[in-house]
Amino acid sequence: MAVTPERVVFVTGYPGFIGKRLVRRLAEQGRGRERIFVLVQKKHLEAAAADLERMDGEPGGASVEIIEGDVEQMHLGLSGVEWKSLAAEVTDVWHLASVSRLEADRRQIRHVNVEGTRNIIELAQHARRLSRLNHFSSSYVSGDRVGVILEDELAMGQRFHNAYEESKYQAELLVRRVMGDLPATVYRPSIVVGDSRTGEIDRFEGPYAMAILLVASPVGVPLPLPGDALAPLNVVPVDFVVDAVTSIARNPSGAGRTVHVVDPSPLSARRVYEMIAARAGKKIPEVSIPARAFEAVMRLPGLERRARGHRVAL
Fold first, then answer.
1. How does pLDDT run across 96-133, given as a tens digit for each residue?
2. Residue-level pLDDT at 261
3. Bridge partners of 192?
4. What pLDDT was estimated at residue 312?
5. Residues near 78 by Cβ (< 8 Å), separated by ≥ 6?
């Protein structure tokens, strides 16, 4: 007779940047007593298999198996038998799947970020052995709010800068509505950057885009910073994020909570870019310029090509 593992973990958002590192940590913690299933879209199957092959060469850890599917689809794209089997066994759900590209189509963002979350909640509601639903949200659910923002605050009349922020807000609303019935934890990281030890990152977006423009700028004059450069630039290394969320997920008091995974003492944007500029032998002006003027600077020959695709984030 088959023995059901102590824990059955289900992860979406693999093989994404955070997802890969989270799965490795969960496998290490499992020590053979857990089964981990990762939901992977068809277009990412090859990359997922390659990453798991590298993981197989690492010592210890729980087994990790790929399930082909998609959070957008009904029952996550699984057959009825597969979905019911997963719901009967799963104890821990980690929902990371998300479209975070700011330039992505609004409809696609909503389908993945909102409807995908709704489908994950449906699975959790049918999971008889559920220990925890772990939902990755974002500190940007706060939209245009300023000042101190508490973890238990969400719907505060804020407006949003883009479809991504709004979709993450709507997804978190869905999770918070079921917190009375499900043991759920919401994590709100700020800007997730590379590993604090190796610097490894999967793509150059957000603060990286600005840093690359600063370092690679062919313009003879110093590149100015957009907007209020005294504002804090809150970034968190991916290894810190994984350490934090896996610790909270195993703490019973984490259920029913929303947690900000952020730097409590962030440097200002100016200080961050001064440090980058010093390493690159560049300078930045003493004053910043309005965001609209920065747009004009980004259209200068030599910068326009480099800034394309990053302008919305900047």
1. 999 988 778 999 999 999 999 999 999 999 999 999 99
2. 98
3. 236
4. 62
5. 67, 69, 86
